[in-house]
Task: inverse folding
């Protein structure tokens, strides 16, 4: 419409709530912008409401939208139906539609976005915002559902699709069907995170490659030697080393500066190239840094 290849005439009328009868309509003529249609209709709602609230009558007329003044202006009044030259079309025969046909057609209509969104919230217990984003495109909604069927963690899968995956797709200027990432690969990656095999950091590292080239996240992790370290004894040695090398952060933490813990965690992750299990690292650190513990 904004390109000038389409124009719109919009009719609007107001009536008391529950009356069941349409009020007097006005016609908004020759609008070539979605924004103007919206603004003009909103203006007419306010104008007609003011007239009706004051006991005045809305006249049936054709109006133009004045963009500069932000109001509608009457072009011509049409008080009766014959002014619109209504007449039966002799070449069109009556067309009767049975209730059975309506019911059959209704059954054939696929699930619409609003219905799908409501179902996603109810079935997968994800926030309404997530559901609204996932159902904007059918291919994204289908990808999400296929992935959840393979690994039942809807919220985590939703986060990956809306966040990192969407960013990669935008950067490559492709949609989710045009990428090499499969529901099976995403499900496997999220499961590896949930099982403690890899960390979120490692997942973010391998995601661009499996999105662009496809393949198994398990195979890629093994090839790159990125399996998460969850052995408490191995990690305890790293924790001791980092604590010994960071006296200031240790003292800051013991002095009540809790953000010092994040620095120590970061150093441990750097030492293990992001492979340390964050949960175990935090547990070991807190145990070591406890005032009664040994450092």
Result:
């Amino acid at each position: 419409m904004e390109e000038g290849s389409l124009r719109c005439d919009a009719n609007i009328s107001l009536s008391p709530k529950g009356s069941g009868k349409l009020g007097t309509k006005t016609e908004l003529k020759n609008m070539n912008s979605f924004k103007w249609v919206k603004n003009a209709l909103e203006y007419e709602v306010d104008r007609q409401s003011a007239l009706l609230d004051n006991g005045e009558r809305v006249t049936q007329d054709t109006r133009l939208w004045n963009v500069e003044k932000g109001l509608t202006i009457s072009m011509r009044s049409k008080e009766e139906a014959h002014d619109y030259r209504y007449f039966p079309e002799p070449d069109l025969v009556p067309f009767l539609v049975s209730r059975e046909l309506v019911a059959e057609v209704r059954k054939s209509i696929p699930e619409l976005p609003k219905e799908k969104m409501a179902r996603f919230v109810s079935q997968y217990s994800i926030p309404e915002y997530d559901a609204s984003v996932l159902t904007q495109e059918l291919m994204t909604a289908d990808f999400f559902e296929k992935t959840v069927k393979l690994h039942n963690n809807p919220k985590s899968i939703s986060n990956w699709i809306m966040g990192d995956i969407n960013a990669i797709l935008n950067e490559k200027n492709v949609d989710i069907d045009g990428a090499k990432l499969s529901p099976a690969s995403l499900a496997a990656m999220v499961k590896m995170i949930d099982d403690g095999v890899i960390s979120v950091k490692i997942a973010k590292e391998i995601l661009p490659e499996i999105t662009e080239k496809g393949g198994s996240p398990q195979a890629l992790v093994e090839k790159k030697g990125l399996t998460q370290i969850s052995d408490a004894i191995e990690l305890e040695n790293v924790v001791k080393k980092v604590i010994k090398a960071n006296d200031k952060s240790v003292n800051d933490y013991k002095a009540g500066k809790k953000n010092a813990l994040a620095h120590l965690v970061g150093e441990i992750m750097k030492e293990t190239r992001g492979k340390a299990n964050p949960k175990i690292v935090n547990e070991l650190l807190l145990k070591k840094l406890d005032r009664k513990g040994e450092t």
